[in-house]
Amino acid sequence: MDNIFNYLDYRNFLRDYYDSRKKSETFFSYRYMANKLKMDHSLLVKILSGKRHVADNAIENFITFCKFSKREAQYFETLIHFEKARSKEQSRLYFEALLHLKGYRSSTITREQYEYFQKWYYVAMRSLLDVYKFKGNYKELASKLNPPVTVPQAKKAIALLKKLKFVIKKKDGSYSVTDAHVTTGEKWQDIAISAYQKETIQMSASSIERDPKELRDISSITMSINDECFEDMKEIIRECRASIIKRVDSIQEDQTDRLYQLNMQLIPLSAIQKKKNGSNDNKD
Fold it and tell me: Which residue(s) pair with 167 in the sheet?
């Protein structure tokens, strides 16, 4: 059975734990495990199937049953709180606690993958290398971004991109971008992407003061809509993004000469007003 530190979902661990014990011990069953955990076996099945969470007052029973070390017990308990978190801020705090407890043991997610989305210039630097031929002049590299970053920030960005194998150093001393990508589809990525989106939205706000009007396109529309219109607008935005990506992909690599960030935001400015039938009818 795999190490607890290789998991980011405690129920995946428990399922693997059960399967491993079941293969080696013929008597092992849901009922046996539930009895040792001092819970109804139907509740255990619901937990393993993802329909229920482990209650806070039952965590210690799981720790004892699985014979976790102190560090493993801390990690397991934090995993449960991570899955039960009710806000992105709570999720972020628990996830960073998991990274601290995990150290460098994980084979499925690295500290560097999460860090990649924490600063706008990490992602921007990767794209910049498609436009700018970098050969080790960090001062010039740092000045190429808008706004410019510091030399230490540029060095940290390149070091991170190299660790993630997002860039490689060629024989002539220049760097090129690879096709490597960050693991997707897990809860940690949603937290990381949210942090990245906050950074890029803040960049859009600062662009109003920083960049000449002819070099940017920022507009705002405030409107009253309904559910049907909202769904239509999301589809229109999706189609717009797809069209823009297709247009960008049509540019030859040696023809690009600048780096741009495109943000699209469609956000609620009020609570949803549920109207009762006939509530708006005028009566004589």
Answer: 177
